[in-house]
Structures are given as structure tokens and as C-alpha cells.
Amino acid sequence: MKSVINILDLSVEELQKLIDTANDIIKNPTKYSEICKGKKLATLFFEPSTRTRLSFEAAMYELGGNVLSMSDAGTSSAAKGESVADTAKVISCYADIIAMRHPKEGAPLVAAMNADIPVINAGDGGHNHPTQTLADLLTIYREKGGFDNLTVGFCGDLKFGRTVHSLIEALSRYKNIKFVLISPEELKLPSYIKKDIIQKNNFEYLQTTDLQSVMPELDILYMTRVQRERFFNEADYLRLKDSYILTPEKLQNAKKDLSILHPLPRVNEISVAIDKDERACYFKQVLYGKYMRMALILMLLEVL
Ligand code: NCD
After folding, report:
1. Whose CA is nearest to atom 8 of ligand 1?
2. Is 80 an active-site residue?
3. Which domain holds residue 23?
4. What is the domain-level CATH number for residue 63?
5. Taking the model in full, what pTM does it have?
């Protein structure tokens, strides 16, 4: 029984299998519409979410399975003081697989160590978000045909943005990626990721505060919101929140085939005027996330 807590829990071959399965689901949805009949997914969300929880639930319904949903930690036994370990043991009696989001880094790992069923990390604090990375990978794959030789810009809150951390880890498995890290000084990528992932694997990288100067180089631009809920004080958030606002003018010197990704929710870091630009991929990315979650559920339930 396998859980996915970190994107590195999946090998490159498994990632490719997920991409191939998701592409097949897109082509032949009816082939999969009953495949999880009788199976139950429990979504345990101890932190706000729209897309990720509903995406997991839509994924399970489209596979013909059922969903048990806990979306408000305030109404669960966690409010009475139940540990994550106990919750995981209890839910193992009801469901076949768990998707868990938690504000504390490491909580889904604790759940996985105690559950008798696979656990998927649906975001743990400022740490990791592997299933968003699956959505990102399918988007890049479908836009660019692969992952090697890309220059990928990450812009915004690289310190607290867990989707950034997981995507950098995932891309470090491929060849000749150049990482361009664009953020305010205070929101730079944590040094453990820079050292252990980027430098250790000898990837070329550039750190800058200036998006405009690097724009012409980028094949992918991964925008992120400043993660308000992880700040210790509101004044810092207010000072940093509008550090980068992508507008059509700022894309004037960008590549014609740039792909603009964003894990969403968007606050105001991408102007809505960009939504019409064919380089904007963020709404497709949402849809791809559902297909990749379907593929992941199938893999972890060993249905395929
Ligand atoms: C992201 C998250 O929860 O980390 N959202 C998502 O799941 N798509 C990004 C964010 O909240 O900024």
C-alpha cells in the first residue's frame, strides 16, 4: 500500500504512467466511469480549499466511486482534541483512500504512518502539495510535449508557496531545466530546496527580484499569490502582496509560446485581461488537475 506525501514518492516512470492515464481518461472518459464502483474516498480538509477538495471529489465521482467529506475542522473531532494519527485509524474503517489537507507541515505523513489505507497529501502548511504538481506536470506536458530543456520562472511567494516547492522537486528529475526564481527578498525560496534540490543536482538557476528582465528567456511562467495565511503579521503581507502583477504590457517581450501557469486562487497577481491570451493556461490546469487526481486514485487503489 502506497501513500503520496511528497512528489518524490512517485518515480519518473510512475509520473509518466499518471500522465498517460490522464490523457487516456481525457480521450475515453466512459471507459473509466464505473471503474471505482463501491470504493470510497475520504476528503479530510483541516484548512480552506475550493479547488483541491472539489477536484478530488469530482475525480472520485467520475470514476464511479463515492465520497465521504470533511471540510470543516471546527465540526470534526479534531476540535475535541483527537490526534491526526487516531483520525487516520478511524477513517481507515470507513474509506478506501484518504486525501488530507492540513495547516501543519507533516500531518499527512503522520496520517499515512497510521492509516491502513493510502493517504494523499492535499497540501500541508507551507511544505508540499504533490497533487497540484501533478496538475502542473500534465499542463506542461500537454503544452510543451515534455519537460527537458525548459526555462521555468517561478514568481511571487517562493517561501511559503508549497506548490512551488513540490513542482521544483518534480522538475529536478528531468534534464537541463533552468530555474528562474523571481521574488521579493523576504519571500525567497527556502534554502533547503535551493541547496538540496537545485544546487545538489547541478541545475542552472537565477535568483532575481525583477520579472521584466528575465521575461524573454522563459518557456514557463509559474505565478503564485502571496500566502497571506502564513504571515506572522498583516503589515508585511500588505507591503508584499502586490510585488508582481502580470499585465498584458509586461508580456510584450515574452516568448510567443510562453505558458503561464498559476495554481489558483488568484488574488490580483495576474490581471484578468490576460485570461484571453492564448498563453494563459491556468484554467486548463484546473481541469487537468482533476484528471491527474483520477489517475492517482486508480494507481493507489491498484485498480489499473
Ligand atoms: C494552492 C495551495 O493550496 O497551496 N491552491 C491550490 O490547491 N490550487 C495555491 C494557493 O493557495 O495559493
Report:
1. 263
2. yes
3. 7-128+289-301
4. 3.40.50.1370
5. 0.96
Which of 189-221 are b and which e, b meaning 16 or more Cβ less than 10 Å from the residue's Cβ? beeebbeebbeeeebebeeeeebeebbeebbbb
Q: What is the DSSP letter of 241?
A: T
284: pLDDT confidence band, cut at 50, 70 and 90?
Answer: very high
303 grid coordinates:
485498480
143, 279: one domain? yes
- What is the position in ligand 1's atom list of the atom closest to the CA of 289? 8
Å from CA of 31 to ligand 1 middle: 30
- Do 263 and 277 belong to one domain? yes
| Whether residues 30 and 156 fall in one domain | no
The pLDDT assigned to 48 comes to 82
**DSSP code for 252:** T
Q: What is the pLDDT of residues 113-166, one digit of tens each?
A: 999 999 999 999 999 999 999 999 999 999 999 999 999 999 999 999 999 999
Any catalytic annotation for residue 30?
no
Please check whether residue 2 lies inside any domain of the structure: no
